[in-house]
Structure formats: C-alpha cells, structure tokens
C-alpha cells in the first residue's frame, strides 16, 4: 500500500497526465484499498467512524471510476473528478474531520433539521380539463381515467402514449416540479426527457400536416422521423422545426437566454424574427435582454450531463450554477458579497447530497456557503 507521501506524488503525476500503466494500476489499487487507519478518531465530535468512512469511500470511488475502456485512464475520468484532487489530498494530509465533518457542519445551521435531498423521478400529468394526476402515485401499467386508457406507465419515471382514434385526441401536459425529472414517449414514438421545473404540452395523437408541442424549462428531444409531418417545438420566443433528430432546448423563464443545441440531424430555429439552420454540434443562443441571437459550438458532454446524472459547469457564473442547484434540490438561494466575475467549471453527481456540490465549488476558494433550512447563503 502507498504511503501518504507516495500517494500525493503519484496523484500529482496523474493529474499532469504522465502516469505509466503500472502507476495507474497502483493509484487504482490504492483507492480500492482505501483505509482511514492513520486518523485519530473522536467519535463524539466527528460522528460514527464507520458511517463517515463508508460515505467518503463511496464518494471517492464514484468520482474515480472510469467510463470508457478504450481510452487511457487519465483521459477517461479526468473531466469527471479533477475538481476532487484537492479534496483527496486534503483528506490524506489533514484528516477526515476537515473534509467531511467540519465542512459539512459549517454549512448547516444546527437549529434546523430539514434534510436537503437530491431530486428524482417526479411529475404531474395535467389533463385537458385541468385535472392533475400525480404520476408517482400511479401503479405501473395502463393509466386509466374515467374508464379510458390514456397512456402506459412503463416504469418509474416513464410514461408512454400509444395510437388513439382521432375523436379521442386531447391535449395533455407533463410538468416536473423543482427537484423532478421525467421521460415521456409521445404517440408518434418521439421521446422527450424533462429536467427539473419543466413542462411539455402535447396532443395524445398527432393528426394533420405537422406535429406540434409546446415546452418550458429544459427538455431533450429524440424525434421520430416522419418526412411528411415536421415536428414543431414552441418555446420562449422561438419555434423549432425538425423532421427527425436529437436536440436539447433550455428555455427557463429565469434564465437570461434560450439555448437550442443540436446533437444530430438538422433543425430550423425561428427566433426574434429570423431563421437559423443548425448543424450537429451547433446551438443558437437568444439573449432576452439584448434581443440578439448568436450561434456557437458546444460541448456534447455538457448538454447530456443532466440526463446522465451529473451537473457539468463550463465557465459558468455562480448565479447560473446556483439556479441549476436550486431547481434540482428545491432550495432558495441568497447572495452576500460581490459575485461578479466568479466562474466555475467542473462535474459532480446530481444524486449526492447538496453539500457535496457545494464542497466542489468551495474548493475554488472564491465562495463559501451556509445552509439554513431550505435556504443556501452564498458568500463571496
């Protein structure tokens, strides 16, 4: 087993991308055999050692796992956990208490007992007459309302619509709350994924010369190809027309811009009185304040991150980062101090505790946090 000094040197070499195959194997073996034997443990102030140790091991192991066997180890996982380098080294040098116990309790007002948990599969189905149905409370199988089968709950977090006769067509809305996400398959086979605080309004069957839906928030579309009937998505100040493709639309009311990112195929975006045709890897960005549209390339990992269970920040302002956190963890955010020019990059799981995400941001040394109930205070 590596000593602390050997581990630190090897870790720094790993971060520089200069590890040999043998050294990479040593590093992986070290984290597999990770122990906390050298730390003097005070159970009264630091908590249950076994519980803390297990939680930390899971955290480090999750962030260090590889994702593509065809790439060298340092390239497979660098983007997913480079932000934890400082945390891991501090753990070895300074002990577990600073990283887990002290930092966690420094976030939290001890007079509060509210536990902030990550979001999950949660949505409401709104029928054409305004009736709201909690999808989480429905059993798997056919969704039957007033004796009519409307859809199929194919799994937790997934609703599927099938073909219906024209006289039964209704407009339904799926809405996710803060801290919710959901997947829906529309009647034509198009698949949509809703992020937190999002909605999509759609017909239970598509007739006529086009397939028309409306959305708000963030939705990823995998559109079923139908050359005779374009698929049209209406969102904040824009319409997107496609035949069959994959794209992501981010159109939250509280964001300063509307972003349409094309993964594959081709889309036409009608926005601010102008029409833009996007190619794979391009996105349109509509600035609501300036009422201007620009096009740019984007990082595919960044766009797909929320579906794959990650937050991925790419030179984003603290306000933008915290809006993502607030929607997913259903919290309120307040700021104290100057936040101008504070940009963040990194990747962290969306399914960890909120303090894990805040830990990552604090490692930059530019902000600190305090949690009071369901409110997060950001201090610059």
UniProtKB/TrEMBL annotation:
Gene3D superfamilies: 2.60.120.1440, 3.55.50.30. Keywords: Membrane, Transmembrane, Transmembrane helix. Pfam families: FecR (PF04773), FecR_C (PF16344). Residues 310-378 form the Protein FecR C-terminal domain. One of its GO terms (molecular function) is sigma factor antagonist activity. Residues 173-267 form the FecR protein domain. InterPro entries: FecR, FecR_C, Ferrdict_sens_TM. The chain crosses the membrane at residues 81-100. This is Anti-sigma factor. It comes from Sphingobacterium gobiense. The lineage of its organism: Bacteria, Pseudomonadati, Bacteroidota, Sphingobacteriia, Sphingobacteriales.
